[in-house]
Amino acid sequence: MASLVGSRVERKEDKRFLTGKGRYTSDINIANQTYAIFIRSPHARAKIKKIDTSKALKSSGVVEILTGEHIAQDKIGGLIAGWAIRSEDGSEMKCPANPPLAKDSVNFVGDPVAVVFAETLDEARAAADLVKVDYKVLKAVSNLSEAMNSEAIHDGIEKNLCYDWLLGDRQKVKEAFEKADKIIKLDINNNRLIPNAMEPRACVIDYNTASEEITCYTTSQNPHLSRLIMSAFGGVAPENKLRVVAPDVGGGFGSKINLYNEEIVCSWASKKIERPIKWVAERTESFLTDTHGRDHITHAELAVTNDGKFLGFKNETIANLGAYARVFGTVTPTYLFGPCATGVYIMPAAYSNVKAVYTNTAPVDAYRGAGRPEATYTIERIVDKAAMELGMDPIEIRMKNFPTEFPFKQTLVHQIDSGDYVAGLNKAKEMADYDGFAARKKESESKGKLRGIGVTSYFEACGIAPSPVVMMLGCGVGLWESAEVRFNPTGQVTVYTGSHSHGQSHQTTFAQIAADELGVPMENIDVVHGDTDKGTFGMGTYGSRSLTVGGIAIVNACKKIVNKGKRIAAKMLEASPDEVDFKNGEFVVAKSNKKKTIGEVAFASYLPGVRDEVKSPLPEGDEPGLIESSFFDPANFSFPAGSHICEVEIDPETGHVKLDKYTAVDDFGTIVNPLIVEGQVHGGLAQGIGQALYENAQYDDSGQLITASYMDYTMPRADDLPNFNLGFTCTKATTNPLGVKGCGEAGTIASTPTVMNAVINALGGKEISLPATAEKVWKACKEMKKSNAKAA
Amino acid sequence: MKTFNYHSAKDVKEASKLASSNSAFLAGGMTTIPSMKLGLASYKDIIDIKRIKKLSGIKVSGKTVTIGATTKHSEVASSKDVKKAIPSLAALAEGIGDPQVRNRGTIGGSIANNDPAADYPSACIALNATIHTNNRSIVAEKFFTGMFETCLKSNEVIEAIEFSIPEKSSYQKLPNPASRYAIIGVYVAKHKTGINVGVTGAKSCVYNDKDLAGALTKNFSSSAIDNVKISSSGMNTDIHASSDYRANMVKAFAKKAVDAC
Ligand SMILES: Cc1cc2nc3c(=O)[nH]c(=O)nc-3n(C[C@H](O)[C@H](O)[C@H](O)COP(=O)(O)OP(=O)(O)OC[C@H]3O[C@@H](n4cnc5c(N)ncnc54)[C@H](O)[C@@H]3O)c2cc1C
Q1: Residues 6+ apart with CB under 8 A from A605
Q2: Looking at residue A611, what is its pLDDT?
Q3: Are residues A473 and A615 located together in one domain of the fold?
Q4: How far is B137 from chain A (nearest CA, A)?
Q5: pLDDT at position A1
Q6: Do A760 and A384 form a contact (C-beta atoms < 8 A)?
């Protein structure tokens, strides 16, 4: 049987998704369900003086209205930050309480204060209009750069500072900078993004009054984690009385990692009102209350020699946490960011300093790439600036500072097991026809256009594991992954995984790897995920970890199956287990050339008795059945890397940036399914390009989100994007048996700096902030023209 | 959404009779329905006019193109007749919103709504349109009276819009990157009788830029525009474009339009 790993198998999911047969949370209806509408703060910052529900309670169809008072009475806990980050001075981070319904104060527009349950959605809406909330409006802190000098939003959190974190060695950096020929300085933003999953958040809760079990169907990237938090911190129900199901989920991008207010409130309330509850976010609610991404202000410096060698790097960053610290909120701008800030380079000295602050805006958390895009943007922009100031070619300066020996101990944290950065950049250079750029630039100029080329080389740290490391860094849980592989007596296989697929195509990829391990046709393998009642446990999907951690747990469980199968086969074939080889789904004894298929062995494993010619095949000490599980905790993060090159053409009359060519060369280690990987890269590129050119979440001074709909929040569209030119190099990860590295975030990480480097290259080095909107680019073109005229 | 009465009018007379200050005609619904959903508008009566056959269709005579009020943007965009008579008008329709919007939105709804960033109003100005209603015929310059305002009475139904076929014309639009409405759109049309430059998106209401038209009357070339000063005062400012940028873009897109004529 040919190996399935590496082949372009069509997605098992396609039929369901493309024919409208997906089953999303909002497709689920439970008899007798009520409908929830949340009443949300229209103010960014206010004290709640009084909530009057009397009129609303009398409104038609209303079942119940609950507020923060009820939450407090029932001692329902709030939302939490999953990682404890310490400041440079050793002090603990400061996090405010985040009750699921605000009781005393609201801290961003959209912060929920009450909830109406009614017989119909319209009745719930009508009643919600009648709930009167009396606010004392306070001055909002909405501007990130002024947050530390503004009034404290949360009692006891001075300067609105959660922590002032440092990674690296200030003294070493100082010494390195003293030796430098030149110090390159850069001030940049990293614009705030709204994840915009196609499926809005939703939950459907079913409380069983007899068993006292709550079932919560929800849009989650990690249902087990949601159950854990809802139980351990929310106190909604013990874990054994709480089932969380995340069925088909239409995109997450990090925004569905968190357990949200609505899931806690509805789960708790369903038990209270003894009715099922359905809540589906409207798009505006998604804009206002899904966790947002990025939002940094950074000052960075790079110390270089005149011939382009890097001596040291530092960054001082202010990161916006929004109103509250959520699950990955505190780690995203620290351990997911700082270690990557020195990029793919040998950097003798470095530090990364991050001040995370609270503002009266939606909570900011992990968004595709989480920290690594921000880091890569910083280093790749400053490296380009260095090249420009030193008069070097951007590829040359990168090549000069790449490590060539692996494992490579990166400056700040990571020990990178494998890679070949030179090969990746060379391949990208060739595929992008880098050398032909000058001619294309000339041609653009002949049409009155400007053309720029941008290069980025990146690495990222994926998997967000091993547990001992992440726990040492402050994570509240271990980030292993589990799997269970079950053979049915008649030979089909069900794979239970703790990873969760919300666009990643696990049903296909995981079936491919299990098929290879077990020698069973892919059609006979089902992958089950997303239900805490099925499968062991799971830490969920984010950080490009599903294959590198979850996939390996499957491989290991399959290996255990094969091992048990060998023992059973040995007995059946009258040999000793070490005489049995397993290949292509068959257990073979070489000396006698007798064999049994894995299906026969599975069947036998369930029939441990004597009847006709079947004689108890179970070796002594083995239990019946062919079911194995595994928890996998890798030895290290995995480190995908690559180089991207793009070209833009700018119309100086209008500032319009046309993305003309885009080449991405990535090293994801072993590629299980190129079709799926290419899809992941395409989607990632679109999102990173979106950040570079279009997307920008903006709040006004009073803390109102002014980009709260698609009329104002610009998403990248198909016609904004060129055909992507993709290439791959492969150095296998040495930390897992498949050699895989993870591919989900790379496109997003690399494309933002690639595009911005190209835009700024076209503008002759003139800095502009993210995103490069037409007006900003037009202004820069005008200034460039002026300074060119002066120079002439 | 608040409740409302839905009527499907069988002819213009009935539609007009049902109308009041608290009603809306339902053509494409691409403005009315989202506004109702978002709670920005509510009506007692919704009067569907899509079943009135005579309101839809495209007629071309020697000098004019007449488009029925409920003709969809996609129909104008793909009409061979429009493409032949006034290619820039078909191109304008092709550039509205997205396929879903074009498959529902109508020309009558667009101009009745008179969104300051809508495309069609600039065509009406540039192409000396006459708006035919059930009561009267109104020239475009008098029809558009202000932001989201026209001279239409509440019971007045637009039946058709009659455009003069120009010698040359072009519409050039800088789309809002998010909504794809016009940040600015400039419609340049050269008629035997004179030149019009319909500008949308720039101010609170579409207008005919007399300075640009004047310069082009003297010399119909994009270089003639170089020396025209366009003031940013009175121009819209929002997160996508400042008034200064808009003023400059009116000029840049006027030049593009002239070059494309
Ligand atoms: C996502 C999106 C993007 C869009 N992008 C663009 C764009 O790029 N450019 C652009 O120009 N437009 C754009 N539009 C607007 C759209 O093209 C329609 O033109 C507009 O919504 C109105 O047309 P309608 O037929 O849908 O009118 P409706 O919503 O049905 O009605 C709008 C108003 O017009 C009145 N009305 C309708 N027909 C008549 C009539 N015959 N007589 C009198 N009054 C009438 C109604 O009473 C109502 O008040 C966009 C809309 C959406 C939703």
Answers
A1: A487, A564, A565, A568, A617, A618, A624, A625, A626
A2: 65
A3: yes
A4: 34
A5: 60
A6: yes
pTM listed for this prediction: 0.96
Residue with tokens 């009614």: A118
The ranges of chain A with pLDDT < 70 are 1, 610-615
Does one domain contain both A300 and A444? Answer: no
The two three-digit tokens of residue A297, written as one number:
């202000």
Question: Can you give the C-alpha Rg of chain A in angstroms?
Answer: 28
Q: Would an 8 Å CB–CB cutoff place A713 in contact with chain B?
A: yes
Provide the residue range defining the domain that includes A122. Answer: 31-138+196-289
| Cα separation values, A94 from A83, A87, A337, B178, Å | 12, 10, 20, 37
Between CA A515 and CA A1 the distance in angstroms is 10
Residues of B within an 8 Å Cβ radius of A: 1, 38, 174, 176-179, 239-242, 245, 248-249, 252-253, 255-256
Q: How far apart are CA B196 and CA B171, in angstroms?
A: 12
Closest residue CA from atom 40 of ligand 1: B158
Work out the pLDDT band at B1, boundaries 50, 70, 90.
low
pLDDT digit string, tens, across residues A472-491: 899 988 899 999 999 999 99
- Strands of A209-306 (E only): list them: 213-218, 242-245, 277-280, 293-304
pLDDT tens digits, residue range A34-43?
Answer: 999 999 999 9
Among B30, B50, B122, the mutation site with the greatest number of ligand 1 atoms within 8 A of its Cβ is B30
Digit-coded pLDDT (tens) for B193-209: 999 999 999 999 999 99
- Pocket around ligand 1 at a 6 A CB cut-off: B 24-32, 34, 49, 69, 73, 96-97, 101, 105-106, 108-110, 112-113, 118-120, 152, 157-158, 179-181
Q: How far, rounded to the nearest angstrom, does the alpha carbon of residue B182 sit from its chain's CA centroid? A: 11
Same domain, A242 and A272: yes
* CA closest to B251 among chain A residues: A653
In sign, the C-alpha dihedral spanning A428, A429, A430, A436 is: positive
Residue closest to A144 by CA, chosen among A601, A724, A781, A701: A701
pLDDT at B37: 87
Using CA atoms, how far apart are residues A98 and A101, in angstroms rounded to an integer?
8
Chosen domain end from A632, A663, A691: A632
Domain ranges of chain B: 168-260
State whether CATH 3.30.390.50 applies to domain B168-260.
yes
Question: Predicted confidence band at B91 (pLDDT cuts at 50, 70, 90)?
Answer: very high
Instruction: Determine the Cα–Cα distance for residues A660 and A113; give it in Å rounded to an integer.
Output: 48
Residues 6+ apart with CB under 8 A from A183: A177, A301, A302, A303, A304
Q: Write out chain A residues lying below 8 Å of B179, CB-based.
A: 710-712
What is the nearest CA distance from A716 to chain B, expressed in angstroms?
A: 9
Contact criterion met (CB < 8 Å) for B179 and A706: no
> Ligand 1, closest atom to CA B120?
11
- State the DSSP H helix or E strand holding residue B258, giving kind and residue range, or none if neither: helix B243-260
Token pair recorded at residue B248: 């400059």
User: Domain of A708: which CATH number?
Assistant: 3.30.365.10
Kindly identify which residue of chain B lies nearest to residue A777, measuring between CA atoms: B245
What is the layout of strands, in order, in the sheet containing B45-48? B5-8, B45-48, B23-26
Residue pair B34/B48 in contact by the 8 Å Cβ criterion: no
Of residues B178, B249, B255, nearest to A714 (C-beta): B178
Chain A residue numbers touching B241 (CB-CB < 8 A): 774-775
DSSP code string of A35-101? EEEEEE-SSSSEEEEEEE-HHHHTSTTEEEEEEHHHHHHTT------SB--B-TTSPBP------SS
- Is the Cβ of A714 closer than 8 Å to some Cβ of chain B? yes
CA distance A726 to chain B (A): 27
Phi, psi values for residue A154, rounded to 5°: -110, 135
- CA–CA gap between residue A19 and residue A330 (Å, rounded): 40
